[in-house]
Sequence to fold (576 residues):
Amino acid sequence: MFSDLSTPRDDSSLLCRPTEDLAPVFERASPAYSPCFERFGVGERSFSRQYAHIYAARLMQMRPLLTEKAEQKWGSDVLVRKLCDLQAGEQCCIVGTLFKRMDLQPSILKEISEEHNLLPQPPRVKYISDTDELILEDELQRIKLEGKINRDRCVTGSVIAVYGAERNDGKFTVEDFCTADLPAQSVRPALDSDRFVLLVSGLGLGSSHADSMLGLQLLVDMVTGQLGDQGEQSGAATISRVLMAGNLLSQSTQDKDGSTKAKYLTKKTQAGSVEAIRLLDELLFQLVTSVPVDVMPGQYDPTNYTLPQQPLHRCMFPLSSVYPTLQLASNPYQATVDGVKFLGTSGQNVSDIVRYSSMNSHLEILEETLRLRHLAPTAPDTLGCYPFYMKDPFILEECPHVYFSGNAPTFESKRLTGADGQEILLVTVPTFHSTQTACLVNLRTLECEPISFTAFSAGDDDESEMNISH
Amino acid sequence: MTTKNGLITDSFKVVKKARKVAKRDETLAPPPQNAETSIRQHEEQQKLIQFDLDWRFGPSTGISRLQRWDRAKLHGLNPPEDIRELLLLKQNNQEYKLSLWSQYPL
Fold:
């Protein structure tokens, strides 16, 4: 692992007199890299369509997969029915899109309905309640679900197959259900040496308190090999790529003063994001001179809000964009580094599921979306999304080797082994400005470890205070 | 009229001309019809309307008929080939291009 490489040795060159001979040069490993961002391009950008198309395309794409899974699970003679052919009391299987009716879900129609004279709905941490109902929809009809299906874990928009029977009162009693599960995976080539990809997210530049700037500079210095002794520098040379997973700018750069205040009052004030982008450009400039960097946009970054977010524009980075090592990527991100397939988002899809289900752990949700074979099931219901009509680009066609999401509260990682021998590393990349933590993925072993740039971790507050007093 | 409003007609000449041309185009657009072609057109329209109303191929608002056909083909739903041929033949005709619901406001 990376930490072994960078532990100081006896023949450390630190704190010595400068020597005459030249310092050794460590060649940085440069892996084969092929981005596949076309999948998340939006093409002609027509917003005149309704979202019915994306749900229809999703069901069209998922139905054959789920029918196959259902036949595997409940025997090949299982009766797969459409809702319109359903007969009461008959045991059968139905493939459809889940819809969770939630009383607390914010609704623009409720807000603008003047006759009710309601107060605006307060923002909540979670929008689930005991009165929620699960409904399964296919192309023509819908039916309420009851029985052995966990209502609070499910989210709107996931396509599943349910097995059971319709009761006389018109509700469907679920005995079992299945998801599309993991897609097939390509073989990962064996590497002969350790190579790392550094994942970092949530830099939060431009916030009023610059508490993460020291950590950030340490991170940059570590990656570019300007920290530590020769052991650490040779370790840094094995970092072959840096991936920034969104929210490079702080939420506070998005002040809405400009749109609410009078023009003459805000005429001379500069948008907060201008300074933050310049800071980011300087930071990237230090990095791209030494290592290839992928930059994904996130929720607070200056690009389109709806998924898939398009790459940030080159003209915002006058210093760093002249280097071919700067790769401005889309969100979701998909690329192959040394044969290892990376897929991930800046975390909007995961944090949206946190709000609309009982699940709290980002890692658990990441696994759940992989099992559903869908990156963002809650788009377009509660998550902004481009109105696609031809196909749903968020359906996983191929199993990634590394599946990540950014801007998580803590670092977590897990190795997942699929039914057909797929091996996936799940990583939740923590927000850097609050945790000062990034993570390193080893391309050879598919292991992942956090790398922290703070002396004071959350666990040992007392200890660190003692250190200061001494 | 022409003597009184000479100035106005002078300044709006171009606009008036353009309008006249557009109107002439509209009147000219439908080709001279005889009974046979109108029956054939009616049949073709009926066929396309049946395609629009087939729920298996998904919603039809907001996209062209050809786009809807291509999507059905992409997802292996076997849309009828003659519909595609007909749509490609009449590519420039708005009546054929858009679905039955295209005139309704969303």
Observations:
- Residues 22 and 95 of chain B are 18 Å apart (CA to CA).
